[in-house]
Amino acid sequence: ISCTDKYIFECVAVEISLGKNNILVYSVYCSTLAPIVDFLNKLENVLLKGFNENNLLFLAGDFNVDIRKNS
Q1: What is the DSSP string of 23-38?
Q2: Which of 10, 34, 36, 45 has the fewest CB atoms within 10 Å, i.e. the most exposed one?
Q3: Residue 51's pLDDT is what?
Q4: Each residue's pLDDT tens digit, 4-54
Q5: Bridge partners, residue 36, by sequence
Q6: Are 28 and 39 in contact, with CB atoms under 8 Å apart?
Q7: What are phi and psi of 69, to 5 degrees?
Q8: Residue 41: helix, strand or coil by DSSP?
C-alpha cells in the first residue's frame, strides 16, 4: 500500500497475514512544509482504511512535529 501527497504526506504500508489476523506496518513522512492539521487529516484517513478488529497496526515514521513549538 502506498500513498503520497508530495507536499504533505507520504506513506508506505505492508500487510502481513497471520491466520485470521493481519498486521499492518505503516511508515509515514510529514513534509516540513506541511501544515500539521493537513498531515493529521491524511494520516487519519489512511489509518481508518486499514483499521478493523482483526488488524494490529504499527506506525513509525518522520513526523516533523516540533512538540516544543506553540501552534
Answers
A1: EEEEEEEE-TTS-HHH
A2: 45
A3: 81
A4: 676 788 999 999 998 888 999 999 999 888 888 888 998 898 888 888 777
A5: none
A6: no
A7: -85, 130
A8: helix
